C-alpha cells in the first residue's frame, strides 16, 4: 500500500485572546506515512479515532518557559490531548493490533507510539460508544468523580451549585450530587443547555446570561458545595451565598482563560467566618487513589442509563481548531469530541 | 461593707470605621454592687482581673440582625470577651471562692455569673502569669495550635509564611512551625515587632510597611503554608508565590475590619493549577478536638521558656476602649491585655 497523507493539527502561534483556527493552530497535510512499512522501533502504530477538546487546553498554549501543571505545546508540533485510538500494528507486548486504547495522543491521523507509552487498553465490556471514554468515562468524568469523592464531603439534603452544568464535568457532578440526595442548582449559557441540565436532574437550572447568579443563589441557597468551573464573579456570588462550612471544589476558571481581565473578587474575608474549605485540584493527581474505582463503576452506570451525557461531535481533524475555539467560547453543546476517523 | 462602684465598658454605637473610645464604647460608673450581700441566685460572684483585646471583636460591633460566627454586641450593654476572673463567692458547686477562672466575661469589674456558666477553672500548676491564659495559653494560642494541627499538614523543610507575626496567634504559629523544622518567613508592622519575631526564631522577618511582601516572598518562597491574619493584598501575594499543594490557613482579615474598602484579589485562578487548599476556621469549632491536648502541652512549653510570648498591658477598664482600638490599628506590641484589677 502506498503511503497515505497523515494530517496533523500543529500549534502555530501563542494566542493572546481566543485561540484562532488558522492562526493559533494550522492544519497540515504535508506529511505522509506508510502504514505497512513504517518502522515501529519496538512501539506501536495507532490510528487516532477520537480526540478531546477541553477547556484546559487553553492553558497549554503558552510560552514553554512558563511552568504549569500540564506541559506547554511547542510551536510547530502537533497538539496533543486525551483521545481514543485503534492499534494497527504493535511490537509493544502490552498492546496488540485491534486494541482500542485511551491516553494522550497527538492531533494527527496516525501516530507511532513508543514502547511503554501510557496507553490504557479499553475493554468496553459494557459496550458503550468509544467516544464516551474521552467524556463521561474519560478525563472529564474522572475529574468529576475523583474530586467529588475527595472534596465534596456531601450529606443528603445539602445544596450543591454546579457551573458549566451541561459540560461533561458539570453534568457528571450534577448526577453524582443528585444520586447522593442533594438539592442541585446548576447554570449554563444557553436555554438549550439549561433544558439538558434540567433533564438530568438539576432541581434549579438557569441561564446565567439571562439571570443573575447571585440572585438565584440568594433565593435557592445557601450552598454547601460549590463546583467551580468558571471563577471570577461567579465565585464571588458563591462565597456570598455559601453556608457555614461549605466546600468549594475549584476545577477551572474559564472566565479568565482567554485574555479577559481577571474579575477582582472582593469578599474573601468571608472565608474565615464561614469556615469555607476551598480546594484546587488536578485530576491527574487524584487518579492513583480513585482511578480503578472509577472504571469499575462509571461505564456501568453510563451503560445502564443511570448517568446521562451529551456529546457534541466535530468531524474531521481539519476542523479541530474550531472545535477547540468552540469549547473556549462555550459554544459546544455537551462534551466536544473531534472524530478523526470512524473506525 | 458598703456597695462599691462597678465600672463597665458599654457598647454605645456601631462604628463605621475604627471603634472610637468615648463614641463606640463608653466607660460607665453609674452602677454599684454590694459584694457581700448581692444575691447569687445559685451562681457565682467573679472579680474580673484581666480581659483580652482581640482583632475579632471588631466583627461583633455590628447590627444584631446580621448573623456571624460570634454574637453581635447589643447597644447599651457591656462588651464581653475572654478574660480571667477570681471567684469571690459561689453557690455553683463547680466553682469555689479563690478559684481563678477563664471564660467569656463582661467588660465590668465585678460580674454575677449564672450557675453552669462555661468557666474553666485554671489550675496553673506550672505557675505562669495568669494573663498568659488569655494570650498564648488562651484563645489566641488555641487558635494557633488547633488550626495548625488540623490544617497545616506541614513537613520538615517546607516554607511557612506568617502574618501579624508578633501578635499572640502569629508568634505561636512561628514557634510551632519552627519546632516542626520549617523555614519561617514572618511579617509585622514595625521594626520593634520584627526584632521580636526574629528573636523567637523566624528565619526571615520583615516590616511590611517598608518592604514589599510580594518581593520578599518571591525571593524567599515558594511557600507551602500560609497563615493569613490579614487578607487582601497580602493574600494575593501569597497565592502568587505559593508552591503547588500549599495550605492556606485563613484566620483573619484585619485589612478589612475597619471600613477599609476590600482589596480585590485578582489571581484566584491560580488556586486550580497550584492545587491550593484554603481553609477558613473558627477556633471555637476546633476546641472539642484539640482543647485538652492544648492545655496539657502549651502551658508547660511556655513555663519552660520553649514558647515565648510578648504581652502589652493596658491598665484600668476605663482604658479598655483604647486597648481595643490599638489592636485594630496594630499599635499593640504583643498580646494586648486589659488589666482590670491586680488580684
UniProtKB/TrEMBL annotation, chains A, B:
Pfam family, one: ADH_zinc_N
Secreted listed as a keyword: no
CDD domains noted in UniProt: PGDH
Annotated ranges, domain Oxidoreductase N-terminal: 41-114
Keywords recorded for this protein, A-Z: Oxidoreductase
Domain Alcohol dehydrogenase-like C-terminal intervals: 168-285
SUPFAM superfamilies according to UniProt: GroES-like, NAD(P)-binding Rossmann-fold domains
Superkingdom assignment: Eukaryota
MF (Gene Ontology): oxidoreductase activity, acting on the CH-CH group of donors, NAD or NADP as acceptor
Classification via InterPro entries: ADH-like_C, ADH_N_2, GroES-like_sf, MDR_fam, NAD(P)-bd_dom_sf
Protein's UniProt keywords contain Oxidoreductase: yes
Protein name: Zinc-type alcohol dehydrogenase-like protein
Amino acid at each position: 500500500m502506498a503511503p497515505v497523507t497523515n494530517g496533523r493539527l500543529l500549534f502555530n502561534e501563542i494566542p493572546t485572546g481566543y485561540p484562532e483556527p488558522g492562526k493559533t493552530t494550522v492544519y497540515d497535510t504535508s506529511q505522509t506515512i506508510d502504514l505497512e512499512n513504517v518502522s515501529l522501533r519496538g512501539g506501536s502504530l495507532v490510528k487516532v479515532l477520537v480526540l478531546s477538546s477541553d477547556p484546559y487546553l487553553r492553558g497549554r498554549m503558552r510560552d514553554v518557559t512558563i511552568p504549569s501543571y500540564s506541559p506547554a505545546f511547542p510551536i510547530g508540533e502537533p497538539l496533543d490531548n486525551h483521545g481514543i485510538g485503534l492499534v494497527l500494528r504493535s511490537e509493544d507486548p502490552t498492546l496488540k493490533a485491534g486494541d482500542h486504547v485511551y491516553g494522550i495522543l497527538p492531533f494527527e491521523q496516525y501516530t507511532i507510539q513508543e514502547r511503554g507509552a501510557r496507553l490504557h487498553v479499553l475493554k468496553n465490556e459494557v459496550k458503550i460508544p468509544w467516544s464516551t471514554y474521552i467524556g463521561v468515562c474519560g478525563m472529564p468524568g474522572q475529574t468529576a468523580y475523583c474530586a467529588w469523592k475527595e472534596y465534596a464531603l456531601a450529606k443528603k439534603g445539602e445544596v450543591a451549585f454546579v457551573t458549566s452544568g451541561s459540560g461533561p464535568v458539570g453534568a457528571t457532578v450534577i448526577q453524582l450530587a443528585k444520586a447522593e440526595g442533594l438539592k442541585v442548582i446548576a447554570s449554563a449559557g444557553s436555554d438549550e443547555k439549561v433544558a439538558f441540565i434540567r433533564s438530568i436532574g438539576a432541581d434549579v437550572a438557569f441561564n446565567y446570561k439571562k439571570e443573575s447568579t447571585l440572585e438565584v443563589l440568594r433565593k435557592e441557597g445557601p450552598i454547601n458545595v460549590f463546583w467551580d468551573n468558571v471563577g471570577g464573579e461567579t465565585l464571588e456570588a458563591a462565597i456570598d451565598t455559601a453556608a457555614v462550612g461549605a466546600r468549594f471544589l475549584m476545577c477551572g476558571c474559564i472566565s479568565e482563560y482567554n485574555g479577559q481581565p481577571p474579575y477582582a473578587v472582593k469578599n474573601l474575608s468571608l472565608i474565615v467566618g464561614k469556615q469555607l474549605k476551598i480546594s484546587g485540584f488536578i485530576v491527574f493527581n487524584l487518579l492513583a487513589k480513585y482511578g480503578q474505582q472509577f472504571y469499575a463503576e462509571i461505564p456501568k452506570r453510563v451503560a445502564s442509563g443511570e448517568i446521562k451525557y451529551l456529546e457534541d461531535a466535530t468531524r474531521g481533524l481539519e476542523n479541530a481548531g474550531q472545535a477547540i475555539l468552540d469549547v473556549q467560547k462555550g459554544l459546544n453543546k455537551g462534551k466536544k469530541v473531534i472524530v478523526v476517523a470512524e473506525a
